[in-house]
Amino acid sequence: MDTTASTTATAPRRPGRGGRERILAAAARLFATHGITATGMEQIAEEAPVSKRTLYAHFRTKNDLVIAHLQGLALSGATLEGVLTRQDIPARDRIRRLFDQPVTDAAPVRGCPFIDAAAEFPDPQSAVHSYAREQKLRMVQLIAAVLTELGCREPLPLAEQLATLADGAASRAMVLDEADYGRHARAAAEVLLDQALQEKAGKD
Q1: What is the pLDDT of residue 5?
Q2: Contact 127, 67 (CB under 8 A)
Q3: Model pTM above 0.90
């Protein structure tokens, strides 16, 4: 008896290579264009293109897919806070660039994907909302680290203020479809930074 053939015939099939990447890319396009809740799993399967069986082999639920999508964005550096870890950019310029909208292929301006996701999943206990909240808290910690690098004595309160300016500017940029709207918040951030660093110099 050919046990190899028998084993091969009965072994579960693995999802096709590249399927996961195609699914995430399709989801990113559709979420950016139509929003998360308005996009169905069947649409994503057709856009990928993959079978629904393959889609669910990679992502058991839509929530799993949405979180994987957001995790990919966080790792890509293509979000508001992505610039904060760039060691090739001077610290103060990293703060300034916090108010630039990330460059994407999507039009119109989409703003912050974590804020968008939290708005579409308003239950604070939901997995998607919880992940978005984690990223917004992480953003404050990243800003605080840059402020510490600049010599700010009390970085956390200022980090909260700068995060509020950046998130507010991103939201207004989306509503107004004005990619350069962050210039207004950047001007306010410069005043806050100057004040904080002057206070530091006065105490040294």
Answers
A1: 41
A2: yes
A3: no
